[in-house]
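Slide 14.
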Amino acid sequence: MSLNLPLKWQVPTLGLILALTIAPTAITLYRQSEADLQQKTNQEQQQSKQSEETRIALDRAKRCILIDERYPLVEGGAAYYDPTNRVSKRRLPKGTTLCSRSGYTAEVDYLGTVKDIRQAPIEQLNQVLQQRGIIR
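Slide 15: predicted structure.
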């Protein structure tokens, strides 16, 4: 390769040409590594969130009232002593913890409605309920 430049400018010019040739590839690799790092961070946060939700649900299972599966937990739904709401209109008190055999747990808020539904693996939740003697 011949440059029609004085000798003292040829080395810096070749260095500049090399840098301009490599720069797009380097930028692309940097962006890709940043994207990979962000994806890994997001996955770790998601796993942490899931494990936190499972932990909360299993802690609740240690003190919950088992509900009838025919009347599932619904966010914002009323929580009555009688799930059919035929006999009594009395709502469960604030702080009552509810759970179902399908792995869901929830709490009752000050209005007597279901809030903060969490889920744990069915097998783990049912194991806690078996230890408590609530189910067989």
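Speaker note: The longest strand covers residues 114-119.
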